[in-house]
Design a protein that fits this description.
Length: about 575
Amino acid sequence: MRCPACGGETPDGKRFCKHCGGSLAAVCPACGAPLEADNRFCVDCGAAISPAVSSLEAVEGPVAERRLCSVLFVDLVGFTSLAEGRDPEEVRELLSDYFERAAGVISRYGGTVEKFIGDAVMAVWGAPVAKEDDAERAVRTALEVIASVNELGAERALPGLSSRAGVVTGEVAITIGKVAEGMVLGDTVNSASRLQSVAPTGGVLVDEATLRASTRAIAFAEVGELSLKGKSQRVKAWQALRVVAQRRGVGRSEGLEAPFVGRAEELRLMKDLLATTEREHRARLLSVMGVPGIGKTRLVWELAKYTDGLAEEVHWHEGRSPAYGDGITFWALGEMVRMRAGIGESEEPASSRAKLSACVAEFVAEESEPRWVEASLAHLLGLGEAPPGDRNELFSTWRAFFEAVADTAPTVMVFEDLQWADVGLIDFVESILEWSFNHPILVVTLARPELLERRPTWGAGQHSFTSLHLEPLPDTEMGELLHGLVHGMPGDVVEAVRARAEGVPLYGVETVRMLLDRGVLGATTAATASAGSSAPSRFPTPCTPLSPPASTPSLPRSAPSYRTPQLSGGPFPSRPSSASTLERPPP
């Protein structure tokens, strides 16, 4: 059966489209009972039926129309010479792996594979189902596919294997119901193909329409006007650099943001664990450890941006354990509940309790559970008295809530600064693996090595436990980080900063900030220098040192000290003000 809204195919006998959720059959608007074509009144409830409702029928064939779509072309670079002299079976396996990876990424970001052409892939967003962030999803996909091809080359010992991509947004002629057989046609398709052909190796070029639709979440560098084969006029193009925010720019930094370097394998591990958690429907725990400033929070931020751009929903929760204060035993868990319920930082108790009740009712379906789950969560947030029972019963109800959330979509729970957590919270985190093992929950803990001094058995004997220790960045990647912050930084300054940072990204970033503030480094228009600007940025231009000294004095050897929020007393104190909390670190 073909959906009248999107043209997608759904097995016969189903009432709703599996692609867009639209109705496939006429139903009574009052009671939802199925209707026959000539019904003027519902035979179940007696409600009057309008002709528009009773005549609803599935589309029997392809439907042609105009739509605004984003088209992606990805092509392997130099594949002809790479395949020359190789066994045909080896080439076939390589292409099959490439196509499978590309199709998987496109699907995760809500796109549709239109066709495979030789060693090129064409995909489209906006058809058969259109979303407001289609252009942004297409650019995210392009960046992800480029990275995936690089990983494929590394796995198969083919360092020369690389790709390039082009994304163009515009009006197309679309035939809904035809997939992988010319569904989308028009100049937009031709432009995307031509733009891809002039993209640099490993690069993604976009047109102006795509830029304007995705610039809040993607960092770009202006390339200028390009001559494309078959086009009478030159076309303006920009190169997509990286994702800097969640969808529509949520969480974008307004200050100096460093490029993400040296942690690609760690991020890939996190993505794979999330995919495995969803596929196997089992809880997993990833423990990320490292010294302060090594990039633990930045790694999680990259995962958050990734999950936010996926087509399928992922429930994201974060909570931080303060270093000290009263009534903070389960502070991080309380922050997650507040996030899920939409309770503000200083919201009134009555409004907070109402939102909590609505949230519990939304996720906890069984009639007997909402009342005692809500009571336990209210106590966690300081909105009610402790319910009867011991700590194990509280743990059980808290887990029941997040299990119910996970039953609707894969769930991520990020516990930051676990080295400062009370032993009770650590016990709760470990209990998730033991008691919620058959729910798609990925628990991510961020901690300094001191956690092992407090809990030497951390992770011992736990099923589905993965440990990840972040090492200092090598000199090469630290140099890449610094040049990404300020293009053209003098060599002596780079060496001085790199030596003092000792491979810790945050140290290097804060040192560069200090040098900029002191005027040791001049202003720069580097594309990555300020991730907060929504205007198109040009390719980086070299900075000018202002009276550079023979040696760079007074560079900090340790990370800057951040204030730990002072917490008030009470069962669950008010959340620390934004002025006393550390912003998301850039490295």
